[in-house]
Design brief:
The structure is a homodimer. The first copy, chain A, is an all-alpha fold and about 210 residues long. The first copy, chain A, has helices at about 10-35, 40-50, 55-60, 65-70, 70-85, 90-100, 100-110, 110-120, 135-150, 155-180, 185-195. Chain A binds a DNA duplex (30 and 30 nucleotides) through helix 1 and helix 3.
DNA sequence: TATAAGTTTGCACAACCTGCAAGATTGCTT
DNA sequence: AAGCAATCTTGCAGGTTGTGCAAACTTATA
């Protein structure tokens, strides 16, 4: 096979689209982080990215979408890794391991993600479109968890594990973004998942 | 004392306001449950409630708010109960107990809540405005949990417990609303919290 | 270069949401 | 009962969001 599966060559057109998309997303994040969501119009974002307002809506269905980004691919990979994980390990362990790639990508765009977490914290309406909370995202994970555990998706357990893990990831990300000199995101996620697996025991009062 | 602390007398004006608010909220829920969020305009909701569109916005800041309702009071009571709970019990136990009142109120408006859960499930953007996920709500609970446990609010543990408990409540409510012939909400919440306290052990495949 | 395919843009338009001021309703006082 | 003050409702004007359509433009391919 001739490198099938890998992108053959981005091409000028694709590169341009990526750049425009990134420019819009970054402009939106910076402006909103600075002024607040309501004080930034699509027109201003478009202007900062040097495209027309109409073009903004060719890339994002609404203003919010430019802020949260598109993580459909991340979720797909996460589901794939979870499905491929050895069946012996506990669900929480497998979920934590499957998050590695996502965490890596977040680290790779650390600055943008800090802006994003800041904006999301100040505008909770954006939250469900982030990594966790999205309806389709959750359903996909719930299904693969159910298959892994071997119970019916109605059983409640898969949905509980999924929602709870999402909440754990969220809090870890919030902490990570809050103080930039703190521990790595991976360590914070580890800590949260360990606490989950231990039944959330009361910590030593430090 | 002469019944101080209880509302002296609703008064015609207040009763009318309550009725208008309830009419708008119910009309919004029914219409959106039937047609979908995007296929219902504020004008139609107002018409169904027999008020002008402008009046709608006197009651709700946006269309979404009419669907999720206002639960600030519930959260206040929950925080108060949590703060007053005996300091000996585990956090999860105290949180579960503090949820009793909220669960009771949800049961009292079962039909509306089923509509609401249905609408929220189909429109995840509404999710963070519900009982769990709101920024202020979470912060208030995080603070009282931190005080209870005796750690700094930055410790991560309070935020984790809060977010995770919210997720547990959410999944229990979703299950409860999904099949109306199932167990009581209180039992489902109990089950979820028990699983949390046990460290989410893999269930028997039934 | 010519042609096809995809992208950007402007324009028109519906819906969302806010501020303001006028009119209606309610509560209170005399 | 009448009048005054407070509150609620309503209409209107206007800015912003988001979509459909068709014309211009850019890129890919032959």
């Amino acid at each position: 096979m001739t490198t099938a599966g890998t992108e053959p060559a981005p091409g000028l057109r694709d590169r341009k689209k990526r750049r425009t998309r990134a420019a819009l997303a970054e402009a939106a994040l910076r402006l909103v982080a600075e002024r607040g969501l309501a004080q930034v119009t699509v027109e201003e974002i478009s202007e900062a990215a040097d495209v027309s307002p109409r073009t903004f809506f060719n890339y994002f269905a609404c203003k919010d979408d430019a802020l949260v980004g598109d993580h459909a691919g991340d979720v797909e990979r996460l589901v794939a890794r979870l499905a491929a994980a050895p069946p012996g390990a506990a669900v929480l362990t497998a979920l934590r391991a499957a998050l590695d790639e996502v965490i890596e990508e977040i680290h790779a765009e650390r600055e943008l993600w800090c802006l994003r977490m800041d904006v999301v914290a100040r505008n909770p309406a954006l939250l469900p479109r982030l990594l966790a909370g999205n309806a389709e995202t959750e359903r996909a994970i719930v299904e693969v968890v159910a298959a892994r555990v071997g119970v019916d998706p109605d059983h409640g357990y898969p949905a509980l594990v999924t929602a709870v893990s999402g909440a754990a990831l969220r809090t870890a990300m919030a902490r990570w973004a809050a103080h930039s000199d703190g521990p790595d995101l991976a360590d914070l996620v580890d800590e949260a998942f360990a606490a989950l697996a231990a039944g959330l025991p009361q910590p030593d009062r430090s």
